[in-house]
Specification:
The chain is of the alpha+beta class and 184 residues long. It has helices at 2-69, 93-107, 138-141, 147-156, and strands at residues 75-80, 116-121, 124-132, 170-179. It has one domain. It has a 4-stranded antiparallel β-sheet with strand order 1-4-3-2, with helices on both faces. Bound molecules: heme C. It holds the Pfam family Tll0287-like. This is DUF3365 domain-containing protein.
Length: 184
């Protein structure tokens, strides 16, 4: 009887955690589209007004600003990848493992746009969502970057690895985290 009660309590407890986790995942996922949208609009506007070279300059200046604007307490948002352009976006050990998992799942045929992973890690709720390489990304991350543009990327990101991507390939991921409220 006692054991049964404990099992019941344990089950209820894990259901509560599961429900919370689902809510946090939904809350986090809702932060991604406006962040993504603003990045896209910024790069498009810079491309239209000054061409790709100016757009790289705009990206270097504005992507970190847009990222901090969209990090609204308690959430922190960002982007990361296995092949990096900005070293400040380097994955930590957990993110690296999730990126590798996404690459394996993509190789096994899962659509990249649907790859997501959420987990509680060291008292934090963490969520990642894969980013596919779209058509507008190829100018700066593709296999045939214009020489003039490649020169600017080389100059601003001497360790750049974020090129050579094909349309539809896994480019990286959005990464979000927040402390868990009211830890018992
Ligand atoms: C005008 C050139 C340009 C275009 C177009 C562009 N990017 Fe980037 N991208 C950059 C630059 C510059 C950075 C580094 C800026 C930063 O995040 O600090 C970057 C960084 C990133 C990062 C962060 C990880 C890293 O390597 O630092 C991801 C993910 C990314 N781009 C994905 C995309 C996707 C997806 C598209 C298409 C929707 C795209 N980019 C279009 C220039 C570009």
């Amino acid at each position: 009887m006692r054991i049964a009660t404990l099992v019941l309590l344990a089950t209820l407890g894990s259901q509560a955690v599961a429900a919370d986790t689902q809510q946090l995942a939904a809350e986090g996922a809702a932060l991604i589209p406006p962040f993504q949208q603003q990045l896209l609009e910024t790069v498009k506007a810079a491309m239209q007004s000054g061409g790709p070279v100016k757009a790289v300059e705009a990206c270097q200046l504005l992507a970190p600003q847009i990222t901090s604007q969209h990090s609204k307490a308690p959430w922190t948002v960002g982007r990361t990848a296995l092949k990096l352009r900005n070293p400040a976006n380097a994955p930590d050990a957990w993110e690296r493992q999730v990126l590798e998992q996404f690459a394996a799942r993509a190789a096994a045929g899962e659509p990249i746009a649907e790859l997501k992973h959420a987990e509680i890690v060291d008292g934090e709720f963490r969520l990642m969502k894969a980013i596919p390489t779209g058509e507008p990304c190829l100018a700066c991350h593709g296999q045939q970057i214009k020489p003039e543009l490649a020169a600017v990327i080389d100059q601003r990101y001497p360790q750049d690895q974020a090129r050579g991507f094909a349309l539809g390939e896994l480019r990286g991921a959005f990464t979000l985290r927040r402390a868990l409220a009211d830890q018992p």
